[in-house]
Write a structure and sequence with these properties.
The structure is a homodimer of 294-residue chains. Chain A is α/β, with parallel strands linked by helices and 294 residues long. The first copy, chain A, has two domains: 172 residues, NAD(P)-binding Rossmann-like Domain (Rossmann fold, 3-Layer(aba) Sandwich), CATH 3.40.50; 110 residues, Orthogonal Bundle (6-phosphogluconate dehydrogenase C-terminal fold). The two termini of chain A are 39 Å apart. The first copy, chain A, has eleven helices and nine strands. Chain A is elongated. In chain A, helix 3 runs parallel beside helix 4 and helix 6 packs across helix 10. The structure holds NADP nicotinamide-adenine-dinucleotide phosphate (2 copies).
Chain lengths: 294, 294
């Protein structure tokens, strides 16, 4: 038996993402020797022990002190408080990472609490479902999906390699990025699509009753795809929009300008404008198919 | 052998929808004795004969004169011209229908060309893919999907029953609606989602090159679902927006107001407003699951 990459990994916030990482540790040998669950809810801790996803579980932040990898996996709005609670218990040489969907705010909120000698490397696995909680995770969640690390200048290369190996062992395709750039890319690939989906489903929610029931019955013509996206966790998404404000407002602005132009083309019957945009957008679809991301 | 519902059905415009109907006739006995293909392109006619989807095919509109069911399946922008070409050749007792995605404009464009004694019953199967042309069709396309008929006042009930039986034989779930109501329901369930998807993909198209290539690489986080929708046929969608202008502009207006409210909540950090909307939209998803439309 070879020694695993980490002796003991602490997962703080044991929901969809946290419990999926734990399942990887359980199912794929060589990642970590043991898992500690830290969650604010005792009920979650009990459930995690019952599922056999960790051998230690509790609400006490001091539990992280015996771990050489600590993964923060709560909604990002909790990170500032979490940093204050957990920081003092981190021991030298530990790698501290997270899975939050925004990276600049995580650096702002966690950074000040990281003791010297602890390797803080923010990360973001681009994988998820619209479900939440420790029962919704599964080991294959990260398989073939991107995981982006956004190390700060001066990050210890060996620590970066170990964390990269850990995620690769979970099945992820690895990528390194500047944190601010990560937030701009995700604002358009993920945050704007979610905001739009929430908006359109919200618009339908406000229709009079009879219309609403028909929208539900005939939802298969496009609307349905948006409702799946708009069923994602409300707290997680609230935190994403509040913490990636600048980048999200910037893409909303561009989107609104483009929608206004289309609206005007419809109002004035400018068929050629519509057709030419609808033709250009097909090319992006082909690029995605070519990049094997379809 | 029982006699089929129709002796000979003409399909005018033999693309995805037209060829799928023809495949139903070929594969499901009892729908029609034979199929005539009418298409403006001789190449399409040749291909249809080669595929064995019709025993007669040509560009001459007079071909419809020997058919007791005529289905118009071109983009709706072609309907006014098509009505003028085909109207004179329709024989008494024939049922004339269409599959266009907007119903008020079809009534406006086809209605004046329908001779006395011909039963004009507009229709719309809520089924499709992002592919086009006679090779892309398949008989199972309509299976379990809605097909909405929007008969005009005074429609012959026997003709309505026969057309209903035809679509039910293709596997559709049938529904009758007022044409104006159809257009309002579809504006929100189908036309707005497509417009939004085209817009967001268009916004991404305008990004600088490096950003664009990253959006493509990391498209799986939400954006990708929009690109599939935005790869739909440009001419078909141009015609839909131009011909359902009032209803589409009305829902864009509502959508924009709602987006502006969310944008403001993000700008001012109003987390409760965001969370409460994101919680409400989950309920619609549950209704869709309950209605077995998920
Ligand atoms: N889901 C996705 O699609 C996805 C994808 C990539 C990254 N992420 C990121 O992953 C993180 C977790 O998401 P998830 O989908 O796994 O969420 P989840 O299933 O809702 O799990 C979140 C966990 O964090 C705990 N928690 C919530 N608020 C807390 C607080 N204030 N203090 C301490 N613990 C708290 C929750 O406990 P309770 O049960 O007590 O609330 C729960 O155990 C988020 O930062 C998100 O941005 C999510
Ligand atoms: N696709 C969907 O998701 C969907 C769903 C429900 C209803 N519909 C409706 O079904 C109709 C057809 O859609 P489709 O997806 O089957 O399209 P398609 O695959 O592009 O087929 C359209 C056919 O109509 C022919 N055509 C185009 N312009 C014409 C013109 N000006 N005069 C005569 N023939 C013409 C085309 O011939 P060429 O090859 O020569 O252009 C082609 O054979 C549209 O009215 C659409 O609104 C579509």
């Amino acid at each position: 038996m070879t020694t695993p990459l980490f002796a003991r990994v602490a997962i703080v916030g044991f929901g969809l993402i946290g419990s999926s990482i734990a399942r990887c540790v359980v199912e794929y040998p060589g990642l970590a020797g043991a898992v500690t669950c830290v969650d604010r809810a005792q009920a979650v801790c009990d459930r995690v022990l019952e599922l056999g996803l960790a051998d230690k579980a509790g609400t006490d932040p001091a539990l992280v002190s015996e771990c050489d990898l600590v993964v923060l996996a709560t909604p990002i709005g909790a990170f500032a408080d979490l940093g204050a609670l957990i920081g003092p218990h981190l021991r030298e040489g530990t790698i501290l990472t997270d899975v939050g969907s925004v990276k600049m705010s995580v650096i702002r909120d966690i950074g000040p609490h990281v003791p010297d000698g602890v390797h803080f490397i923010p990360g973001h696995p681009l994988a998820g479902t619209e479900h939440s909680g420790p029962d919704s995770g599964f080991a294959a969640l990260f398989k073939g999906r991107w995981c982006i690390l956004t190390p700060l200048p001066g990050t210890n290369p060996e620590a970066l390699d170990r964390l990269t190996a850990f995620w690769a062992g979970c099945g992820s395709q690895m990528e390194v990025m500047e944190p601010a750039h990560h937030d701009r890319v995700l604002a358009i690939t993920s945050h704007l699509p979610h905001l739009i989906a929430y908006t359109i489903v919200g618009t339908a929610t406000d229709l009079e009753e009879q219309m609403k029931s028909e929208v539900i019955r005939f939802s298969a013509s496009g609307f349905r795809d948006f409702t799946r996206i708009a069923a994602s966790d409300p707290v997680m998404w609230r935190d994403i929009f509040l913490n990636n404000r600048e980048a999200v407002l910037e893409v909303i602005q561009r989107f609104t300008e483009d929608l206004t132009a289309l609206q005007r083309a419809i109002r004035w019957g400018e068929g050629e404008k519509l057709e030419s945009l609808f033709t250009r957008t097909r090319a992006i679809r082909r690029s995605i198919i070519d990049a094997k991301q379809a």
